[in-house]
Design a protein that fits this description.
By secondary structure, the protein is an alpha/beta fold. It is about 35% helix and about 30% strand. It contains 7 helices and 13 strands. The strands form 2 sheets. Strands 1, 2, 6, 7, 8, 9, 10, 11, 12 and 13 form a 10-stranded mixed beta sheet that branches. Strand 3 and strand 4 form a beta hairpin. Helix 1 crosses helix 6 and helix 1 packs antiparallel against helix 7.
């Protein structure tokens, strides 16, 4: 696929990069609230907004390549992209930009369920292949609940809203975004330890880009822009 969108422009030489260089950033724009297209067709989300603000802060130019997650990683590994930002789970080789964790969601207005103990004898909805499902499986014997698996978030949420399941487990930013859309859910637990999401470059390459990203992110956290972006997409 061809690059689908241009990001922020600035004086790259002032940030210590090659003058006029435009970094190619691969992504998957189907992962709300990190990357998605709004009704106007613009690429928005936590990652997209952070990347734009960091580029403006550090003075570099970038171009977004919409490739899908697997293709984005392959593009990076092949040297066809300079970096990937796509809600990626952190490994020791990747740099952290957003702490996540599993939370429990229930139907809005439900006052009976406030903790895992309240799930005893009930059913919990989970999504296949997620940290939420792994966490649910790890505690269901202790708290005496059953699990039902779904392939996508929307059906999982609907199962809770309709009352078929008492709760669901999901990554905090993903469930927090769903809550912000007023679909009828609320979060009732603190985040369990989970993965972090990051900005990836090939090891030993594009050190200047990674350095600018980290410095820009630190500046955004200090000036409040980071929290402002998170609050745009996540609610409890």
């Amino acid at each position: 696929k061809q690059p689908a969108s241009s990001g922020a422009s600035g004086d790259a030489s002032a940030a210590g990069t090659d003058a006029g260089k435009t970094y190619l950033i691969a992504t998957d724009t189907t992962f709300a609230p990190f990357e998605f297209q709004n009704e106007s067709g613009e690429f928005v989300g936590i990652d997209m907004d952070l990347l734009k603000a960091i580029a403006e802060d550090q003075g570099f130019s970038y171009e977004i390549q919409v490739l899908g997650f697997d293709a984005a990683v392959q593009s990076l590994q092949a040297g066809q992209s300079d970096a990937v930002i796509a809600g990626m789970s952190i490994t020791p080789e990747r740099q952290d930009n957003f702490d996540s964790g599993v939370v429990m969601g229930i139907k809005a207005g439900n006052e009976e369920i406030k903790s895992y103990e309240d799930l005893r004898g009930k059913n919990v909805a989970v999504k296949t292949g997620t940290e939420g499902s792994a966490f649910a499986e790890s505690i269901k014997a202790e708290y005496g609940f059953t699990t039902t698996y779904f392939k996508d978030s929307s059906n999982m949420y609907e199962d809770v809203i309709s009352g078929n399941s008492a709760a669901c487990f999901e990554d905090y930013p993903v469930l927090g975004y769903a809550v912000s859309q007023d679909i009828g859910l609320k979060i009732v637990t603190e985040k369990e330890q989970g993965s972090s999401y990051g900005f990836a470059v090939n090891k030993g390459q594009n050190a200047e880009l990674l350095d600018m990203f980290n410095k820009g992110l630190a500046n955004l956290k200090e000036n409040g822009k980071y929290q402002e972006i998170l609050d745009t997409y996540i609610q409890e």
